[in-house]
Specification:
This protein is of the alpha/beta class. The protein is built from 7 helices and 5 strands; from the N terminus they run βαβααβαβααβα. The protein has helices at about 15-25, 40-55, 60-85, 95-105, 130-140, 150-165, 180-200; strands spanning about 5-10, 35, 90, 120-125, 170-175. The two termini are about 15 Å apart. The structure holds ligand Z5A.
Length: about 200
């Protein structure tokens, strides 16, 4: 697909939302389309309520399908049309989150559906698990259902991300996210510059 598809991934508190916001400012003149998962449209926001804040016990595979259903709707409504029109799309989490959380950490068999566009570049923001969780405590964020999982769970997520990045070194840019927000942003822009130049 034409356009440029950029995704941000990483464990809790790795700074994805912060970097997405800095990138949105840097790319403002190109009017990028910004999305977050789960969410970004009506179905996604409703599923977000169920998977992150619902009180019901969710089967792990059912949880995976809910995340993926929200994603497919977002792809159809927003991501695919924007990429076809040559726009830049920036996503705060995408299918690698399902591969890392539901696949790597919960052990559900996962695949990449052929109808889900592959990102041109995926930034994996890497911070030690405990460091990321501490950031969220300091920020006063109330933990959701997934964030409330054990530290071991979050280590399995981080390990799964590392395996995904190692398997696709061309797509993934693994960045040390323990530096300042500005340092990480500079590294993001450095990696993106050739792709932005090619886009014109
Ligand atoms: N999930 C899933 O299981 N399967 C899926 O397919 C999908 C998602 C799509 C979404 O939660 C949850 O859904 C997520 C995975 C699961 N849950 N868990 N666990 P969310 O949307 O509510 O939040 P999140 O995506 O997990 O984001 P986060 O971890 O809460 O935060 P973040 O976006 O990585 O970080 P941040 O908000 O930019 O920064 C956190 C704090 O750190 C904040 O105070 C910043 O000011 C500070 N910060 C950021 N960068 C820095 C640097 N460089 N230095 C110092 N401080 C910093």
């Amino acid at each position: 697909m034409p356009g440029l598809f950029i995704t941000f991934e990483g464990p809790e508190g790795s700074g994805k939302t912060t970097q997405v916001e800095l990138l949105a400012q840097a790319l403002a003149s190109r009017e990028p389309v910004m999305v977050r998962e789960p969410g970004g449209n009506e179905l996604g926001e409703r599923i977000r309520e169920i998977v992150l804040y619902g009180a019901m016990e969710l089967d792990a595979e059912a949880e995976m399908y809910l995340f993926m259903a929200a994603r497919k709707q977002l792809i159809s409504e927003v991501i695919a049309p924007a990429l076809s029109a040559g726009q830049i799309v920036v996503a705060d989490r995408y299918h690698d989150s399902t591969l890392a959380y539901q696949g790597g950490a919960r052990g559900v068999p996962t695949t990449w559906p052929s109808t889900f566009p592959r990102p041109d570049v995926t930034f994996l923001l890497s911070v030690p698990v405990e460091h990321g969780l501490e950031r969220l405590v300091h920020a006063g964020k109330k933990p959701d259902r997934v964030e409330s999982e054990s530290v071991e769970f979050h280590h399995r997520v981080a390990d799964a991300y590392d395996r995904l990045a190692a398997a696709e070194p061309k797509r993934f840019a693994r960045l040390d996210a323990t530096g300042s927000k500005e340092q990480v942003h500079l590294a993001v822009m450095e990696r993106l510059q050739p792709l932005l130049d090619a886009l014109g």
